[in-house]
Amino acid sequence: MKLIFERSQSGRRGSTIPIPELPVPKLPPGLLRREPPRLPELSEPELVRHFTELSTRTFGIDTGFYPLGSCTMKHNPRVNERAAALPGFRDLHPLQEEDGAQGALELMWRLQEILAEVAGLPAVSLQPAAGSQGELTGLMLMRAYFAERGEDERRRKIVVPDTAHGTNPASVAMAGYELSKVATDLRGNVEIEHLRELVDEGTAGLMLTNPSTLGLFDEQIEEIARIFHGAGALMYYDGANLNAVCGISRPGDMGFDIVHFNLHKTFSQPHGGGGPGGGPIAVRERLEPFLPVPAIVRDGDRFRLDHDRPKTIGRVRGFCGPFGVFVRSYAFIRMYGPALREMSEVAVLNANYLLARLRDGYELPFDRLCMHEFVLSARSLKREYGITALDVAKRLMDYGFHPPTIYFPLVVPEALMIEPTETEAKETLDAFVEAMLAIAREAAEEPETVKAAPTSRPVGRLDEVRAARRPVVRYGFSEHPDTGFRPADPRQLEAQKGA
Amino acid sequence: MAAAETYPDGLKYHPEHDWASIHGDEATLGVTWYAQDSLGELVHYEPPDVGATISKDNPYGEVESVKAVSDLIAPLSGEVLEVNDKVVEDPETVNEDPYGEGWLIKIRLSDITEPDRLLDVEAYRAHVAEL
Amino acid sequence: MSFLSLTDADRVAMLDAIGVASIAELFDDIPSGVRLGRQLELEPALSEPELMAHLEELAGRNIHAGAELSFLGAGIYDHYVPAVVDAVLQRGELLTAYTPYQAEMSQGVLQAIFEYQTAICELTGMEVSNASGYDGTTVAADACYVAKHATGRSTVVVCETVSPQVRQVIETYAPGFGLEVVEVGHRGGTTDPEDLRAASEGAACAIFQQPNFFGCLEPAPELAAAANDAGALPVAHVDPLSLGLLEAPGRYGCALAIGEGQGAGNHQSFGGPHYGFLAARWDYHRRMPGRIVGETLDAAGERGYVLTLQTREQHIRREKATSNITTNQTLLAIAGLVYLSWLGPQGLREVGETCLALSAYAKERLQAVGFELSFPNQATFKEFAVRVGRPAAEVVRLSRERGIHPGYALGRDHAGLDDALLVAVTEKRTRGDVDRLVETLTEVAGR
């Protein structure tokens, strides 16, 4: 399809702007723009058609099953959208005086209380914008905590398992810490003996996802906590997989000192094609003084922002965090109440059901009951038929499913990481199983069909090597490279409608 | 077009899949067929600066494919005399001709006895066969 | 629970297929010592109508932009968000997709990001844009990380006239980056290029804001030249809505252009979620944080879009990544693209001119009734600081009793500016609104 810039026609416009009958003052000539930006020129009908066509070329949870492991692609209730669009929330300025923002402050305070209960840790900051910023904030808290104790200079190491999300080591580097990697044992737990060797008085802390990215709960979590706390170090819980254990096991009870939540995963903020998210953190009492400012506090029946926190690490983003995300997650949680436990139970039931039905078609590197997700391997398909995890993923598209996460975690070759979430119906899970098993059969019987997939999408497999070698990252107008663009034929348009 | 699997005689090899061609106190360095094959199609080469000092067994640059980054491990120590700009411009040259046009840097050796500690082709072939 | 789809019969059949007797058995791996063993102490579940009633009650206790006549800005602005933006954002496919790891499933969102990158490059005069950062504060920290690695230097220079929140976020991030922050004061509301040049010697980057936090227009080309002279990367923090009138940072020598996107297509939403933009000259494309979309072809020669240059990112380069960011603000950035496409170049210019004309009118009227400007010799765009002769916080309170929010009390973060009120005038205000502001200020603070 055309780029919006290719649809543009000089002289068209979509906007009408109020023009006051007032003189427009002259600005200093040296500051004036010499050439206008080449923004697209479209009428509103053209604009609507363009973005509607883009949407039909996008697969969301609303389109179908989206078992993207580690991303918790659950249904996004529509009431949340209605709530976030209430003018009292949507049109509220973040610097409004506190007496004019009591409803917003109360909502955030209530969300903090809920998150504290779910985490099993008493103090919460909603400010971080996403999980990765929550991680970085948590590491900054560790530094502030150890700095106050005079231990920052010697405690330089953060231990991260080899199964961790890439954000963990990246956050360690951005916080100015050194990375120390711990291996995974044959049951998928952290290798305890290796951990004992690594942890000493130079260790600041651990970053752990539990259940891990393998979808397995670390059975030795209590021993891990003893090792870290025994060395005077802190424990950080990456909440990416919290959807498995809400109301069942709390990070604070597992021994973690700092937790981040992914509001867009566990608590259903729509993922928006990549974001927004929300990454609040909860901490133990001894870390509370270091939390970001402003804090949201309750004084009797009034709520206010507290900037006066002498030990704070400071501010990690603008204002109080992504408030619209808070509204949606608060709404979601209030509709569950204590039954959040059932949310996690069903997420785990759905995952184990898929695992039970798929284990004969694919290799299962860690043969245990899983939590909310599990990891299969296409290694034997690759060895026997030359069919890789990537091929399986692409072929799933032709069966109408979004592929799982592939090639992650790195410790499993040809990994397929599958997370169904709690919101899927059994029929959907069954259809997915049938597709996965059919692909495993196709791998043996007609591998070329699998290799040629997808054939039902607006485009076939795209040349990522070309994209990386000669990056074209913006439209070049008259100098735009001729990439062979041609209008899609009617057959392909039909296929798009099934997107 | 990717090259066929070869490991030329007369080169010295490092177990991290680098080769060195020695001429007096100078050497030309590159990566082996095995290295380029396991990385896949290269999309970027980050060379060291000319004049920089590199040391044996330590990284001196990076090559990237679409989904992976790999340190280039120096098989020998020395000063960088020249960088292969053709590979900077067209990284796929390494896939096409890893021992010829796809060389990476030329260095002046700081220790001319170091090449004796590298593998010869037979030893390297045996090493690859075990992977 | 209406968000779950399993029937009781489904559950029985599924447990049977798994080979366990109960759901509880699925959790056997969790040691008993770390189990909660009780219900979560949360308020009981609400039905959807009860939930909406509760949220409407909370929302009703907020005084939003439609409930009082507001001149409050200071980084977040009451610009008009066209209906078409909300309509596009509620397309379920765009709303409920995630990061487009699987390009063939995600051509729509990938193309939208490519178009957004193009629009941001056009606005800023830059050559590469990422797919968005969290907001206008964190992109400044990102810029520092880019500059640190690009230059190998260990100080960053930030003008005092940059938004206090942006400065605070840089201060929070800097120690982890191993960076020291040097601030350059202002002279009468703007930054002196000679001051910036002196401070930038040996620095990785120099960050200024245009228009600055006080609303004043900085001598941006001279500031960029001063930073360049000192070998520091000039970084401009810009208001996208000013860029129909003001020169693009890429055209006056900046290495990076960053900013808060809220005013361009996002509702205020009490401060988020919004998008931050970050664009750079091509020289820095391998140092960019976050997602970048590139154009390519499929096997049949059909044009398509993919995430590209991914070896910069955390999921591949891990501790050596250019950033830890993964989830970003794509949906809000798409809102920005829709908005900028709705405006077009002519609309962008008109919005800017309307803001400029109305705010100039407000300045003139306020001066006519005896108020002085805090920075009288400076050109401004849509926001300006006026001296109200008494603590501005009091004037805010008294004005709000009269149904007007007159602006931001600069004394909240600037010592010595207690009597300064920062007034923002967007295209949503009218001449009559400005007259009402002037009357109200005269009443509560007139002399």
Question: How would you describe what is shown here?
Answer:
The complex is a heterotrimer of chains A (499), B (131) and C (447). Chain A has 499 residues and is an alpha/beta fold. Chain A has helices spanning 4-7, 44-56, 78-84, 87-90, 102-119, 131-148, 167-174, 192-198, 221-230, 251-254, 323-336, 340-358, 379-385, 389-398, 426-445, 447-452, 464-469, 490-497; strands spanning 123-125, 157-161, 178-182, 203-208, 234-239, 258-261, 281-283, 295-299, 302-306, 374-377, 405-406, 415-418. In chain A, the strands form three sheets. Chain A has a seven-stranded mixed β-sheet, with helices on both faces. A three-stranded antiparallel β-sheet of chain A has the order 10-12-11, covered by helices on one side. The longest helix of chain A is centred in the C-terminal third of the chain and has 20 residues, at 426-445. The two termini of chain A are 15 Å apart. Mean pLDDT of chain A is 96; it is low at 490-499. In chain B, 19% of the residues lie in helices and 32% in strands. In chain B, a hairpin with a 4-residue loop joins strand 6 and strand 7. Chain B has four helices and nine strands. Chain C has 447 residues and is an alpha/beta fold. Chain C is built from 13 helices and 15 strands. Chain C has a seven-stranded mixed β-sheet with strand order 2-8-7-6-5-3-4, with helices on both faces. In chain C, strands 11-12-15-14 form a four-stranded antiparallel β-sheet, covered by helices on one side. The model of chain C has no long low-confidence stretch (mean pLDDT 97). Chain A binds chain B through residues 407, 464-465, 468-469, and chain B through 41, 43-44, 64-67, 91-92.
